[in-house]
């Protein structure tokens, strides 16, 4: 065998070895660096997929806001120094167990419910759910009634009170409309990761995992199957796409 062939084989082996992640004794998963292959622009979202997020709260710390900062940068969100009215697509919250006193810091955003109450109450159809589980707002048909904000049990939507400047091409925003986390849908459709997940990996504690909940071979599906995870307000039967581990 030639030296070139040996080098190529060695590189392939190292790539395969680096892709294996050990979660627990006897449990190994393939680590996928990107969400999926890009979705062709002329193809609709498919119900064969269910995009979701898993947050490991044992890794998420109170002092880390990497996900929040990345979201604001990616989506062109800027405040005016008025917390009561400034938009928040993702925010950090603290949960406290009243029995044990244990506290958990975690990011809160649109939970991308399979049965989203925001969609149910929207009078114009501006709030809608794609076939792959991503919940979105069509700014062109949103009339700013804010019914969806009242219906959301996670307080995950914001109303745009003031004119928006320097908008990002992939994320049109406008005064008088409602908005919220869209899982960085343009990135996902291009085969990438949401900005919060990417930043959590590089600038945070690696607490966030994104992937296809419907794919039994995906890392997120394997993690949900292997470890106990929680849906916030599971009693509402919304079947959220965002799950939390460690609470």
List the keywords.
four-stranded mixed beta sheet, Alpha-Beta Plaits, alpha+beta, about 25% helix, about 250 residues, 7 helices, disordered N terminus, single chain, 2 domains, two-stranded antiparallel ribbon
Task: Give a nutshell description of this structure.
This protein is of the alpha+beta class and 247 residues long. The chain has helices at 3-18, 66-74, 117-121, 147-151, 185-189, 195-203, 219-226, and strands at 20-24, 27-30, 51-56, 90-96, 103-109, 127-129, 135-137, 157-159, 178-180, 208-212, 229-230, 242-245.
CATH class assignment of the largest domain: Alpha Beta
Strand order across the largest sheet:
10-3-12-11
What structural category do the secondary elements indicate?
Answer: alpha+beta
CATH topology of the largest domain: Alpha-Beta Plaits
Largest sheet: 4 strands, mixed
Give the amount of beta strand, in percent: 15-25%
Rg over C-alpha atoms, rounded to the nearest angstrom = 20 Å
- Note the gap between the termini: 54 Å
Task: Report low-confidence residues grouped into runs of 5 or more.
Answer: 1-35
Order of helices and strands: HEEEHEEHEEHEEHHEHEE
Task: Tally the helices.
Answer: 7
Domain count: 2
The count of DSSP E runs of length 2 or more, i.e. the number of strands, is: 12
Globally, the shape reads globular
Helix coverage percent: 10-25%
């Amino acid at each position: 065998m030639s030296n070139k062939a040996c080098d190529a084989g060695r590189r392939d082996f190292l790539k395969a070895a680096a892709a294996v992640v050990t979660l627990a004794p006897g449990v190994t998963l393939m680590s996928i660096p990107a969400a999926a292959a890009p979705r062709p622009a002329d193809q609709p979202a498919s119900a064969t997929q269910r995009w979701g997020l898993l947050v490991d709260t044992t890794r998420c710390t109170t002092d880390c806001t990497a996900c929040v900062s990345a979201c604001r940068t990616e989506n062109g969100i800027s405040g005016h120094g008025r917390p009561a009215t400034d938009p928040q697509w993702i925010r950090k919250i603290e949960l406290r167990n009243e029995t044990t006193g244990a506290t958990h810091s975690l990011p809160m955003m649109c939970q991308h419910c399979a049965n989203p109450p925001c969609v149910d109450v929207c009078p114009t159809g501006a709030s809608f759910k794609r076939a792959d589980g991503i919940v979105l707002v069509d700014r062109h048909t949103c009339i700013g009634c804010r019914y969806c904000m009242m219906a959301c049990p996670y307080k995950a939507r914001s109303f745009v009170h003031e004119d928006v400047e320097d908008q990002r091409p992939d994320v049109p925003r406008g005064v008088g409309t409602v908005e919220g986390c869209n899982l960085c849908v343009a990135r996902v459709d291009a085969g990438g990761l949401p900005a919060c997940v990417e930043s959590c990996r590089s600038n945070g504690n690696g607490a966030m995992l994104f992937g296809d909940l419907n794919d039994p071979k995906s890392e997120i599906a394997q993690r949900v199957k292997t470890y106990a995870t929680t849906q916030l307000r599971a009693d509402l039967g919304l079947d959220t796409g965002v799950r939390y581990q460690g609470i």
